[in-house]
Design a protein that fits this description.
Structural class: mainly beta
CATH topology: Hypothetical Protein Tm1070, Chain: A
Distance between the termini: 59 Å
Radius of gyration: 19 Å
CATH superfamily: TM1070-like
Helix content: 10-25%
Number of helices: 1
CATH architecture: Sandwich
Shape: elongated
Number of domains: 1
CATH class: Mainly Beta
């Protein structure tokens, strides 16, 4: 019975290796549907926020890493005004730009959250990845809030932690 179970697991793993999975972190949201043209951008207050991300963390020593799934939340804290995110850039541990999710203004409705998910299999960011967000909001309105939740479960072990963005 154990040999049959082992053979079945091996067959599933081999089949999975032959299939190249598209990473959902490459295009989890249709950013074009959120595109907005700002008619009076000078009337807005502008800012930039830094957010740390971990695609993987060290486990036991520096040679062993543990992959993580990261959920990056872009949140609008205002209950009355939309906020606008102009750019979302994802950088690796060594500061190399991995990808730009969008480089045109998108809107986030009052109290809405939109997310970017970095798949557990997408380890390109490494142990010290970063996001830089460029944003704007109505003068006097609440600034957007950026947060990440990193999680992984293996067998009966699970880890999770969060990071929060800081204004640059």
């Amino acid at each position: 019975m154990r040999q049959l179970a082992g053979a079945m697991i091996l067959a599933v793993l081999l089949a999975a290796c032959g299939q190249e999975k598209e990473l959902s972190s490459l295009d989890p949201v249709n950013w074009e549907k959120r595109r907005i043209t700002l008619s009076q951008p000078d009337s807005l207050s502008h800012g930039s926020t830094y957010l740390s991300i971990y695609s993987e963390i060290y486990d036991r020593n520096v040679q062993i890493t543990h992959p993580l799934t990261a959920t990056v939340s872009m949140r609008n804290k205002s209950s009355t005004d939309s906020v606008y995110i102009h750019r979302a850039d994802y950088y690796s541990t060594d500061g190399r730009l991995i990808r730009t999710y969008f480089d045109h203004p998108i809107f986030i409705r009052p109290l809405e959250t939109i997310e970017i998910v970095i798949d557990q299999s997408d380890k390109e960011g490494g142990t010290g990845a970063n996001f830089i967000f460029e944003w704007s909001a109505q003068k006097g309105a609440l600034e957007p809030f950026f947060e990440a939740v990193m999680i992984s479960t293996t067998g009966q072990q699970g880890i999770s932690f969060t990071t929060q963005g800081v204004k640059r």
